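In response to the reviewer comment on reproducibility (Comment 2.3), we provide here a single inverse folding case reported in full, input and output, so that an independent group could reproduce the run without further information from us. The structure tokens appear first.
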């Protein structure tokens, strides 16, 4: 009996993450790509003692014309498929984007779209029509919106009463990497047994 147990254990651990099918459906191939966003406008406002003061920007932070590169992945090397998005370069006074959402997170199907929401504090939400939000509460709020095919617009909003409030607007044309990663994620989660039943 001990020998049998050991053999079963070895067989179980011998399966790698890519071979494992947690919901009985193939996870497909992993994908990694990059998207580049260009800052098109920056609004910085100080609000103190009942008065506002406008600034052209924040020193060493994003300025008009700056670029932000994001790495986007549909990762199947984990046991559960993941959607990942990560900012390559860190920027002063801008929280670093480094988010993960898994296929097992909260899923909802609507008449025209599917939505996947993370269960972790960073609160990332994906919408199959090409929208994504990242809510870091005190550290800012990001919204991605697809406005044409693989072209996206991104807005960053940080409100800190008594300090500097920031609005940063990015344009991200030709960002097929984000489209591909999101499409692969929703293709998988839409086939999960529990999600098919919820349709």
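Designed residues, in position order:
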């Amino acid at each position: 009996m001990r020998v049998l147990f050991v053999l079963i254990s070895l067989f179980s651990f011998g399966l790698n993450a890519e071979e494992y099918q947690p919901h009985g459906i193939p996870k497909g191939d992993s994908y990694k790509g990059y998207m580049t966003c260009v800052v098109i406008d920056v609004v910085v406002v100080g609000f103190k003692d009942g008065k506002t003061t406008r600034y052209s920007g924040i020193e060493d932070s994003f300025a008009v014309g700056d670029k932000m590169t994001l790495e986007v992945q549909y990762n199947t090397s984990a046991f559960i498929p993941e959607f990942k998005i990560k900012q390559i370069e860190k920027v002063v006074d801008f929280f670093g984007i480094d988010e993960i959402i898994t296929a097992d997170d909260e899923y909802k199907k609507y008449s025209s779209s599917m939505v996947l929401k993370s269960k972790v504090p960073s609160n990332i939400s994906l919408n199959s029509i090409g929208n994504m939000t990242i809510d870091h509460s005190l550290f800012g709020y990001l919204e991605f919106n697809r406005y044409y095919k693989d072209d996206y617009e991104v807005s960053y909003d940080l409100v800190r009463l008594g300090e500097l409030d920031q609005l940063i607007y990015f344009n991200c044309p030709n960002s097929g990497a984000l489209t591909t990663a999101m499409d692969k994620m929703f293709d998988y989660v839409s086939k999960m047994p529990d999600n098919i039943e919820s349709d």
